[in-house]
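Schema walk-through. Below, the input block comes first and the output block second. Nothing else is stored per chain. Lengths vary across the set, and this one has 262 residues.
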Amino acid sequence: MKLAQLLIATLLMGLSTAAGVAASCRDLDVARLRFSLAYAAEPDAVIQYFGHNFFQITTSKGTKIVTDPLAPGMHPTPVVTPHVVTVGREHPNHNYVELARGNPIILRGLAHHGAEWNRVSLNVRDVFIYNLPIYQQAYDSALKGAAFMFDLGVLCIVHLGDLSHTLTPEQLKQMGKVDVALIPIGGTFTMPPQTAREVLAQLKPKIAIPMHYRDNMYILQSFVQGLRTRRPETDTLVVSKATLPQQTEIVVLRPADGRDYR
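--- output ---
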C-alpha cells in the first residue's frame, strides 16, 4: 500500500496548490471571505440517509446535495431534486444519477469509467465542494475512489466514499477540521470496523454517521462498541455548529424502509 499512498500524496500536493481549495475548512478567516458573515454565523445542515452510501445534505439556504445515489433494489428509491450530485465510485450502488430530478450538476470523483481520478473544486451556491483521491478495495486489490468535502462556511462535512485505508498526513491536511464524517465500515469494498475506528481517531469529527454495512448489525456493533452512540428512530439528522458535541458521537441513522438499527 506504500505505492498507493505515494500516488495519493502526489495528487494531494497538486490539489493544495489550487487557489482556494479546501481553505474554508481549514481557515475560518478564509471562510468568511468565501461566504457571507451572516451565513457563517448560523451554519446548519439537514442530513438524510437513504441507505448504503446514499445521502442528501440540505444547507440552511436550501442547497441540496445528493451523494453516491443508489440504484433501485437494496433500499426504497426516494424522490430527490438536488442542485448537485456527487459520485465517489463508478458502480450502480454509487452512480445511479438517473434518479435525480431536475437538471443537477453531476460531479464525478473518477474519470475514464473509474480508471483515473478526476479533480473537483468548485462553489455550488453556498457550498464549496472538493474531492480527495482515496483507494477502495476489491478482492485484495486496490481500486481508485474519491472522498468528497462539503464546506458550508464553518461547518465541514466529509463523505469518505468507499475508503479502505487509514488516512495519510496529506489527506488529513486537506480535510482539515471535520465536523461530520459519513464513514464506511463494511469491509470487503471498504475498510472494516476496526480500521474505521482508526480513521475516526485520525479525523476526530464531532459526529460520525456509519454507512456501507448493508444493514449487518454485527458489523455495526463492532464499530460502535465502547463509543458514544445515539440511535434516533429516523433517517434524518439536523446539524448545527453551535450544538455539536464536544467529543465524537456516533449517530446511527435509520433509512426510511423501517429496518431495525438498534
